[in-house]
Design a protein that fits this description.
Elements lengths: L17 E3 L6 E4 L10 E4 H5 L8 E3 H21 L1 H10 L3 H36 L5 H48 L8 H14 L3 E3 L2 E3 L5
Antiparallel strand pairs: 1-6, 2-3, 3-4, 5-6
Helix pairs in contact: 2-3, 3-5, 4-5, 5-6
Bound molecules: zinc ion (ZN).
The site of zinc ion has 8 residues, from helix 1.
């Protein structure tokens, strides 16, 4: 994540991480009022471009800071106190529909793999029949072509099925990675760029999001 200083050269640990909850565009950082950090705020970049694009809302940096710190503390506490529940909740977020889909895909995968093996055996059989003269060359050619076409299609769909299943399995791995990292922090007293960055990566990868009124902390996914 590159944090660019704003026009006055100031930089915030949240620069480049905040998005407008109304229009989805980036929030810009501004320090005015005699460059007092106390007054620094984030505003919608889209509204800056044209006032017709969004509304004139802003969020103070110190408010964002307090919210993020509080949210992180809450997540940390929750994960540490109710780890099993947290993992289950995160996994349950993938709806029942998705889980049904995954079961269907696993079954489909097993069926395709079985059929691919079967086709190998069938091919072997017609080949032997052809060599021994039980099956004509013409018949062998037609049947072997049909087996080959079917097997090729199955192998192609296998690649897609495996990728889909892998993606769902990744989610489980990401949630455990999140929990492992959270275990490393006993307490967060203040926010540093390292902590913000670390949790940004974890939040986006594991799908945990903190949402707050006019600003959505951390990039939208998808
Ligand atoms: Zn906006």
């Amino acid at each position: 994540m590159i944090r660019r200083p704003n026009r006055t050269g100031e930089i915030s640990i949240f620069s480049g991480l905040l998005y407008c909850a109304d229009c989805g565009e980036k929030l810009y950082y501004s320090v005015t009022n005699n460059y007092s950090r106390e007054q620094a705020y984030f505003f919608c970049s889209n509204y800056r471009k044209s006032t017709a694009n969004c509304t004139a809302h802003y969020t103070r940096e110190k408010v964002v800071y307090a919210l993020v710190l509080e949210s992180l503390r809450r997540v940390l506490f929750y994960v540490q106190a109710f780890e099993k529940q947290f993992v289950q909740e995160q996994l349950d977020k993938s709806s029942g529909e998705q889980r049904k889909e995954l079961t269907k895909k696993r079954r489909e995968l097993a069926k395709s793999e079985k059929r691919i093996d079967e086709l190998d055996i069938l091919f072997q059989r017609i080949y032997e029949d052809n060599v021994s003269g039980k099956r004509s060359d013409e018949c062998f050619a037609t049947m072997s072509a049909s087996y080959e076409t079917e097997q090729k299609a199955l192998k192609e769909s296998l690649v897609q099925l495996k990728a889909d299943i892998e993606m769902q399995n990744d989610k489980t791995a990401n949630v455990s990675e999140f929990v492992d990292k959270v275990r490393c922090y006993t307490e967060i007293r203040e926010l540093t760029p390292a902590i913000v960055n670390e949790f940004l990566k974890l939040f986006t990868r594991s799908g945990v999001l903190i949402r707050q009124r006019k600003s959505c902390l951390f990039p939208r996914r998808g």
